Amino acid sequence: MTIQWYPGHMTKAKRMIEEELKLVDGLLEVVDARVPLSSRNPDLQGLTNKPRLVVLSKIDLADPVKTKEWLDHWQSQGEQVVGVNLLQGQGMGRLRNLVSRTFSNSKRLPRLLVVGIPNVGKSSLINALTKRRRAQVGARPGVTRGKQWLSGPGMLLLDSPGILWPKFEDQEVAKRLAVIASIRDEVLDQVNLAAWLLEWLAQYYPAGVLERYGVLDPHNPLEEVGRQRGCLLQGGDVDFNQAAALVLKDFRTGKLGAITLDHSPSEV
């Protein structure tokens, strides 16, 4: 299974982001805590020298030990980074304080461009910072559309579409991004992706799989999940597509536990 996905609208979106950078004072780069390294778009790293605040989202779904390791690592590298749980508001005060300190010399409200790859929580972050439901939120990549300036306490925010980079040199990175739904499910072989995920979890997070599905056949765990959960075709054969969708949904909603797919900074 080889994963590549860079639809034409992302090229246009990148050009738009480059233009919008002229209007803003800094960036809020949103990164998914489940894939803290893999979800940082290398194409966004060299676009500007303006201040960049990294927001590690969805920490409630990620391995807390690895989350702390990545936060500590980036802070030791001189990056300004905050972990947030947008469902409970955890970390939002620290983020607002960080914005205030970073732009303390500004004579007006700082204008910040919110950037990141698809489905890492950019619109949810904007909604939390502005205390409104103005930015459209969806569970699929590519929901955000058009320019939206929004005001929040101590800042002005500009939304941007989620963009990836043109080619995944590392297919492990591509698989991790596919698992968190940063790549459209429709362009993926979900059966192979779910099988890969179950094998990976059996190695690194077996307890969550055991609690959710019980003991699985290591040679064909997806088939066994399908039988257990009634994902069957007429005649009793397993519907692998349905089983794969179930496994991916269980991961994405945290039912397999708090999991980080990227390795620790010391292992990278």
Structure characterization notes:
The protein is α/β, with parallel strands linked by helices and 268 residues long. It has 2 domains: 8-158, P-loop containing nucleotide triphosphate hydrolases (Rossmann fold); 189-267, Conserved Hypothetical Protein Ylqf, Chain: A, domain 2 (Orthogonal Bundle). The protein is 38% helix and 11% strand. It has 10 helices and 6 strands; from the N terminus they run H-E-H-E-H-E-H-E-H-E-E-H-H-H-H-H. The chain has helices spanning 8-20, 42-45, 64-76, 92-102, 122-130, 171-179, 190-204, 206-213, 221-228, 240-252, and strands spanning 26-32, 52-57, 80-83, 111-115, 149-152, 155-158. The protein has a 6-stranded mixed sheet with strand order 3-2-1-4-6-5, sandwiched between helices. Strand 5 (149-152) and strand 6 form a beta hairpin. Helix 7 (190-204) packs across helix 10 (240-252). The model is unreliable at 135-145 (pLDDT under 50).
Which descriptors would you attach to this protein?
38% helix, Rossmann fold, 2 domains, six-stranded mixed sheet, 10 helices, alpha/beta, Conserved Hypothetical Protein Ylqf, Chain: A, domain 2, 268 residues
